[in-house]
Amino acid sequence: MKIRSGNYYTRLLMYSLLIGSIPVIIVGIISYYKASSIVQDKVNQSSMAALQQTQLRVEQTLKTIDHSVTQYISSPLVVNAMSLPYSAEHYQVYSEMYQNMVRSQTFELTINNMTVLNLRGQWGVDNNNIFTFDDVSNLDDLLGYEKLPSFSVWVTDKNESSPSISLVKKIPLNSLKADGLAIVTIAESQLANLLTADNQLGSIMVMDQAYQLLSRSDQKLQQSGLEQLVAKMQRQSETEGQFNVELDGDNTSVIIRKSSYNGWTYVSAISIKDITRDSRSIGWVTLFVCLLMVLITGGLAWLGSRKYYRPIGKLVATIANRFGDPPDEARTDEFAMIGYRLQSMLQTESRLLAQLTGQVRELKQFFVMKLIRGEQKESQLSARLKEYGYPIDWSWHAALAIQIDALEKSQYSENDRDLLLFAIANIVGELIPPEERLEPVLLEQSQITVIGGTGSTDVEYKSRLFTVAELIQTTVLQYLKLHISIGISRPQKRFAEISESAEQALEALRYKIRFGTESVLFIDDVQPNDLVSSVFPHRAAKELYDAVKLAERTRAEELLEHCISLIFAEQADWRQYRMALVRLYTMLTELGQSETAAADTKQDSAAEFPPEQEKQLFDRLLDLKSREEIRLWFNDTVIAPIICRLEQQSKSHAKKLSDQLTNMIHQNFDTELTLEACAKQLNYHPNHLGPLFSREKGISFSEYLQNYRLHMAKQWLIETDMKIGDIADRLTYTNPQNFIRFFRKMENMTPGQYRKLHGNSKI
């Protein structure tokens, strides 16, 4: 036998090795990267907390300085001194200012110097003395602070020999036009001391609003790296966050926090190498463990493969000795040869069984179908029943007709219906013992099963059939995820009456339209004894008609549910239910046609259904099988489109009326125009036009008229020389003062001030 020796054994060994090694390698890689990620996240969180503490410490110092200076310059002594000239008679005031200034500066505030300038009197006081502007060498720099846009701001001094940070406040407070200036200077070294207090890893920097470096905790970062960092930060829009960037050739984790107090940015830069130092040791340990596990797995795979291959080798040798060499396509490996020999034997056996079973089942189904159609001669019944193994001693029989409720919301399509009915027939054949049924068959989109027995009363047979029907419903729902309904005929005694039983079962199913889906319907229970003349709810249908006409969606849905409930409240023939539904459908479609007929010809032609679609809708109505299907179909297919068309017509009408009111305001704003006059001219009630205009324009009629008159008044003030009194008279104001008060209320200035301010511009 020419078989590749050990081919299957090699694959078995490789598969065992791979199935044991790959999970180990994957777990090792995931563990390493997860550990690295966790370490980096923990360091970033720790750095963020440290940066936040540093920011709070720095801002606490700055706010304390700010508060101390604010208290000092808000004192009556300083405020009053800003109006005094430099004179010997005011020396006592200068001295008290100096003493208070010195007392306000404690050691904890790290203040290098504090200067107060009197811009009017051209004198000042600092930590050293009282001076005039003539004695100050950097007077221009100090006076330049007056042009700052804010009354209180932190500024920086880029003096290379002694860089510093200054707080500038204008006196008096909250005034952009200053009588004096208070300047507090802090050395950059003092700020650097605050940054290094808790710094354990990385560098901490503080930058101003223009991303200029104010101070940093160390000098690790070179100038080129600092420029790269600033460029990256300028592209960031977040006020707080973390990102990675390469600085000075080193991958760095950067954390930023922007201060809401003075706009400074606090930055923490930490090298990724420092962060992942511990995780690299974890990686080496993980690699060693993974290699050890792979070696152990390889040894176990080798031993296990040899053990489990031994029986296969013996089987291959036995088959080769019995049947000889297999064909070429079966020589790839050991299992190919074994499979080839087994498949040959099984195919031969299956072919024989299939031929026999298929022919017998087809004959049985053909026989049952002839019984249901009434085509089987009664004289031949006994012989045929014995031939196909059916019992001939039944004292009663009944037919079960099974239908699928709906496929729309299931996982199947309409093309699968026949296949599903065939599957249901197989389920029924498995649930009911062969001695209690005939072969299930398919008829008129239904599955028919004839069940029989001996010695049962009407109560017993009914209980038996109901139990079987419930079992079928539960099993079909469990395996096929389908809801089915079952119709059950009356019990009959003669086999020749099976065709009548099948008709009764199908007739019972038609009453599913009243009882809903998943029903078990006995023909005796659903078929009415006394027929009613009509089941159409005239009053409820008229209320539904009115609700749809008024485009009241919620009420229409409620009335539709009420109408359907009234239709099926009466015990009637299923044909009467269908007639009532057709009548309701016709009434609603006539409403849609009558309402769209009021629109223009183009709209009317677009609203009507083509004849083919109208026929499809009518056929679908007759095919509905449950109350819920009927309600949804009427609501979605009939009522909703009609209401949509009515709402579109209503919206078009409202826009046309609001545009007409707007044009009347634009043309008659200089008259005694009222909503009542406009409504009379348009032949509508004011109570209808007012809310309609407000909904369309988002503003009331009177407010729109006032705003347009104000617009025309501003235009006349700028573009004409009309007197204010003439403008007021033109705009129907009886008193110019009323017009002036209204104008001032709307524009926060008088008409004259508005004309003076906008005299050279155009509206």
Question: What fraction of the residues are assigned to beta strands by DSSP?
Answer: 5-15%
Give the count of helical stretches: 27
Class based on secondary structure composition and strand pairing = alpha+beta
- Share of helix among residues? 55-70%
DSSP strand tally: 16
What is the overall pLDDT average? 79
Low-pLDDT runs: 1-5, 598-608
Tell me the span between the first and last alpha carbons.
Answer: 104 Å
What is the overall silhouette? flat
For the biggest sheet, the summary is: 6 strands, antiparallel
**Oligomeric state of shown chains:** single chain
**Estimated radius of gyration:** 48 Å
| Strand line-up in the sheet with most strands | 3-2-1-6-5-4
List the keywords.
5-stranded antiparallel sheet, flat, disordered N terminus, 763 residues, single chain, alpha+beta, 27 helices, 59% helix, 6-stranded antiparallel sheet
